[in-house]
Design a protein that fits this description.
The complex is a heterotrimer. Chain A has four helices and no strands. Chain A is mainly α. Chain A has one domain: 3 helical TM bundles of succinate and fumarate reductases, CATH 1.20.1300. In chain A, helix 3 runs antiparallel to helix 4. Chain A is elongated, with a radius of gyration of 18 Å. By secondary structure, chain B is an all-alpha fold. In chain B, helix 1 packs across helix 3 and helix 3 packs antiparallel against helix 4. The radius of gyration of chain B is 17 Å and the shape is elongated. Chain C is α+β, with helices and mostly antiparallel strands. Chain C has ten helices and seven strands. In chain C, the strands form two sheets. Chain C has a five-stranded mixed beta sheet. Chain C has a two-stranded antiparallel sheet with strand order 6-7. Classes of the chains: A mainly alpha, B mainly alpha, C alpha+beta. Chains A and B meet through helix 1, helix 2, helix 3 and helix 4 of A and helix 1, helix 2, helix 3 and helix 4 of B.
Chain lengths: 118, 114, 238
């Protein structure tokens, strides 16, 4: 038998960045077909699309939309960090970019929340 | 079983599509924040997208980049976290890629041309 | 300072569990000192590895409170939590007995990644001229201090998730040789470090670079390999 690591070995920023990036990617991947189906309702006409949008006017859906915006922002900036780690001149694990990703995610999701309630 | 050469190519295809998507997603986030103000309505959305060549080309690019980027990422998760191996993973990824491409292009068509 | 340490040590082989020991606390004490005390005074059947005990050989690497470390260079005061220690063998390697792991797969992967130098000159030829300030030599020098202790391998979760993954040490060694301008196996080397078993499975988790006791950053070398592999794949060389 072999032993594996637990959260103690995984408790560092670059690891959290990886988990956030992977889990957000998974969630977005699951959302994408639903999103395309919804937008495709436009083929049935404006009323069909509008009916769906009215259905999603509930608080739970708005919270979900906000969550997805947050996940997308985090996944994208975390991805840019990885592109820098892999393609750019070596500059460590780019932990400043981890902080920046979090900041970008917070800013974007806040902007979306404000736009939602305006 | 994919060869290591194929795996290396999938790696750079995923990174290349990521670079394209970084630009497109930045735009998409801005569009969403703008569009969601005052509530979403089909009339507003379609008013902006109908007949727009710019929208059609940018979002077609985004859809195609997704169809490349997403399945390659899912393969890594399937193999590393679910422990799946072999052709069922590659076939599944290929099917999901087709799903994204077809449904995504249909959606772009729907809001631009329908 | 507590009078005694409560030390949990992994005992067993294929099956196993933690046994608890009371070890007298000293002013200056390493985790290796603790393990040695247990074996000499409390449980002579405890199996563990060490050699130089001064941080040069890497034999004493174990998992201490969840982290892979050199036990001879880990002061108890730095890791103990309320007088408690947890000592286990390295992760991701088959356990032979107690704190001893079978390191064959680790070294096999090093060999599989073409971790051996092969040149074309012989003793009759002139010395090779390698500029120490060249980009390649600087890159190679950053990784050549690796002593094959296995800490990075035990820390890398991709190793745990993918049995075929060569691992940070093997890929770091390959990187140092890829940057050796005298080596003549470069294409074969890129072939074996490409793909899911090689550099393309590294997700830059960074645990290897965080934990390497010699401050080597395998993530850097693996990123470099990714670039070379991508270019070689584009050109159809691999």
């Amino acid at each position: 038998m072999t032993r594996i690591n637990d959260f103690r070995a995984r408790n560092h920023p670059a690891y959290w960045a990886f988990v956030v990036h992977r889990v957000s990617g998974l969630a977005l991947a699951a959302f994408l077909p639903v999103h395309f189906w919804a937008m495709g309702l436009a083929i049935q006409g404006e009323v069909a699309l509008d009916g769906f949008l009215r259905f999603t006017d509930q608080a739970l859906f708005k919270f979900g939309e906000w969550g997805l915006v947050l996940l997308l922002a985090l996944h994208m900036m975390g991805g840019v960090r990885i592109l820098l780690v892999e393609f750019g001149p070596w500059s460590g694990l780019r932990k400043n970019w981890i902080a920046g990703t979090l900041g970008f995610g917070i800013a974007t999701s806040l902007a979306f929340a404000l736009a939602l309630i305006s | 079983m994919t060869s290591s050469r194929t795996q290396a190519k999938l790696w750079y295809w995923q990174r290349a599509s990521a670079m394209v998507m970084a630009v497109c997603v930045l735009g998409h986030l801005a569009v969403m924040i703008y569009a969601v103000r005052g509530g979403l309505s089909a009339a507003e959305i379609l008013g902006r997208t109908h007949g727009s060549r710019l929208f059609a080309s940018l979002y077609t690019l985004l859809v195609l980049a997704c169809a490349v980027h997403v399945p390659i990422g899912l393969v890594a998760i399937a193999e590393e976290w679910a422990g799946w191996r072999g052709s069922k993973v590659t076939i599944g990824a290929g099917l999901f890629s087709a799903l994204i491409a077809i449904m995504g292009l249909r959606a772009v068509y729907g809001v631009v041309a329908a | 300072m507590t009078k005694n340490l409560k030390v949990k040590i992994w005992r067993g082989g294929k099956e196993g569990g933690f046994a608890t020991f009371d070890v007298p606390r000293q002013e200056n004490q390493t985790v290796l000192d603790v393990v040695t005390y247990v074996q000499r005074n409390l449980d002579p059947l405890l199996a563990y590895r060490f050699a130089c005990r001064v941080g040069m050989c890497g034999s004493c690497a174990m998992t201490v409170n969840g982290f892979a470390r050199w036990t001879c260079r880990t002061n108890v005061s730095k890791v103990e939590k309320d007088g408690r220690l947890e000592i286990a063998p390295l992760s991701h390697l088959p356990i032979i007995k107690d704190l001893v792991t079978d390191m064959r797969e680790f070294f096999d992967k090093g060999a599989r990644a073409k971790g051996q130098f092969k040149g074309k000159q012989n003793r009759q030829d002139e010395f090779a001229r390698v500029d120490p300030k060249s980009k390649e030599r600087i890159a190679a020098n950053a990784g050549i201090e690796c002593i094959g202790c296995g800490v990075c391998y035990a820390s890398c979760d991709v190793v745990g998730w993918r049995p075929e993954y060569l691992g940070p040490a093997a890929l770091n060694r390959a990187w140092t040789l890829v940057n050796d301008v005298r080596d003549i196996q470069q294409t074969e080397r890129l072939k074996v470090v490409a793909g899911d078993a090689g550099c393309n499975s590294c997700h830059s988790l960074g645990s290897c670079s965080e934990r390497c006791p010699k401050q080597i950053e395998p993530t850097a070398g693996i990123a470099g390999l990714k670039m070379l592999v991508a270019m070689a794949a584009l050109r159809g060389e691999i």
